Amino acid sequence: MNRIELTRNLFIKSALKNRHPQLAVFIVMLAGYVFAILAGLIGTPVGSHNFSIVFVWIAWWAILILVAVPFFGRGWCAVCPIPLPGEWLQRGAVLHPLDKKPKWLNLRWPRALRNIWLQNIAFLLLALFSSVLLTTPTITAIVLAAMLFTAIGLSMVFERRAFCRYLCPVGGFIGLYSQTAPLELRIKDKQTCVTCDGKPCYNGASTSLSANSGYGCPWDVFPGGLTRNTYCGLCMECLRTCPHDNIAVNLRPFSADLAKPSARLDEAFKAFIMLGSAMIYAGVLLGPWGALKDAAFYVGTSAWIIYAAVFLGIIFIILPGLFSLALFLAHRPSLKACLGRSRGVGRGTGLRTFAMFSASLIPLGLMFWVAFSLSFVLTNAAYILVSLSDPLGLGWNLFGTADVAWRPIFTSLLAPAQTLALVGGLIWSARMAQKAADESKISAIPVMAYCFAATVVMLWLLL
What angle do CA 57, 60, 62 make, to 5 degrees? Predict the structure, then answer.
């Protein structure tokens, strides 16, 4: 399938260039976000009846994992309310750009931290405390508030969306899996960007009198060099500022970005973090092991410390270690080349190969999360109706659904859907591994075996 330029359609293009529809969605999302914080602080402590738990970890999570990320990539980032207040303060404007420099300190983010290691750490922290976070409204409220105020604070110190680009724990995994999505923002002609004066798509067009007025890319990305979805937040500012109509939103084949995978270790370990977290979540939240659930829930106890150590060991030692073994076996006929000791190749080549091949795990990890989320969401979906009528758990019945009894839905379809997702992810990743192996002239079988073994484990945990 060739790319289809969606912005050729004048209605789609005008809708994306117009800030008012996006602002309306922003305001609704921000109001819901603030209400979720308040509900967590003043509502019922029973998580299954509190808006903050139900709508963040059931409703929003279902939309994010099952729809937004697989089909729209960074689409959630285009309407996420977290950076809004800080961005408005930073710019000194809500809608239209003003003829003045950004407010506050406007410092550059430190060069040594221009990667996603902080996002990886932030996600792991949430993951380690997930059993408490997903069941205790007060903790959820504190985390949501902390993210909002951290984003505001960073916007007052650093330029652009530093929180979104370098710290947001949600943004990290959305960026990773957005590479598989069939939606992208790209330039039409590279030479046009080369000759463009002032690069307003990156630097902004700061006069409200211009037909192409807008802010510089909030994500600190130059569209002319954009080749992957990972760091583009689909804010559409470049579409609004480009004076040459050289920005397009395209429909493309799934996983197009993985044809040329990244060789960055921070992104490689994000793949292992997400793969391992999905497996551990399935065991803790859906499994029958009461001792494991208790260990994950009672933070600070000796059992929790052991749980945290095992959690981190699986993600940073076992999964990447077994994957390295698979690559070692894949290179076995040319062992010297694998170790980087032939033809003048250094140690970095082995790490580069490890990072590039880890991209083949991205479809598998996405389908792991889809399979896990199907079970988690369909089991708890009834709570959404209850929370709609009584969001604070105070005995309200606004829509007549407060007394809906809990029961799982679509139980007969759950196991087949999960199996289909996992097998589909395995086939998808196997194809990615085969393509990478063909280019490297090595065997893909060990990497495929790794993916197969991980899929069998996930099937066992879920079914």
Answer: 85
Cα gap 429→180, rounded to integer Å: 11
Contacts with 144 (C-beta within 8 Å, 6 or more apart), sequence order: 33, 36, 37, 40, 52, 56
Distance CA 364, CA 369 (A): 9
Q: What is the CB-side half-sphere exposure of residue 298 using CA atoms within 13 A? A: 10
Instruction: Give pTM, 2 decimals.
Output: 0.91
- Could you say which DSSP state residue 446 is in? H
Boundaries of every domain in the chain: 1-260, 262-462
Per-residue pLDDT of 143-199, as tens digits, reads 999 999 999 999 999 999 999 999 999 999 999 999 999 999 999 999 999 999 889
Closest CA to 161 of 240, 258, 88: 88
Quick one: how far is CA 4 from the chain centroid? 24
> DSSP letters along 27-90, please?
HHHHHHHHHHHHHHHHS-S-GGG-HHHHIIIIIIHHHIIIIIHHHHGGGGGGT-STTHHHHHHH
- Least confident span in 141-145, 240-244, 263-267, 347-351: 347-351
- Which tens digits make up the pLDDT trace of 268-300? 999 999 999 999 999 999 999 999 999 999 999
Query: Which spans in 220-318 are helix H?
Result: 237-241, 265-281, 290-297, 302-313
- Compute the distance between CA of residue 265 and CA of residue 275 in angstroms, rounded to an integer: 15
Is the predicted pLDDT of residue 364 greater than 50, yes or no?
A: yes
Work out the number of other CB atoms within 10 angstroms of the CB of residue 131. 22
Residues near 338 by Cβ (< 8 Å), separated by ≥ 6?
Answer: 327, 328, 331, 332, 350, 353
Query: How many other CB atoms are found less than 10 A from the CB of residue 366?
Result: 29
Lookup: tokens for 331: 């290179």
Say how far apart CA 146 and CA 172 lie, in whole Å. Answer: 17
Q: Cα(first)–Cα(last) distance of the chain, in Å?
A: 35
Crossing angle of helices 169-177 and 265-281, rounded to 10°:
100
Contact 437, 459 (CB under 8 A): no
Is the distance from CB of 160 to CB of 219 less than 8 angstroms?
Answer: yes
Q: Which two tokens stand for residue 246?
A: 């050289």
Which of 275, 273, 212 minimizes the C-alpha distance to 245? 212
Residue 354 vs residue 463, higher pLDDT: 354
Count CB neighbours of 189 within 10 A: 12
Residue with tokens 């082995």: 350
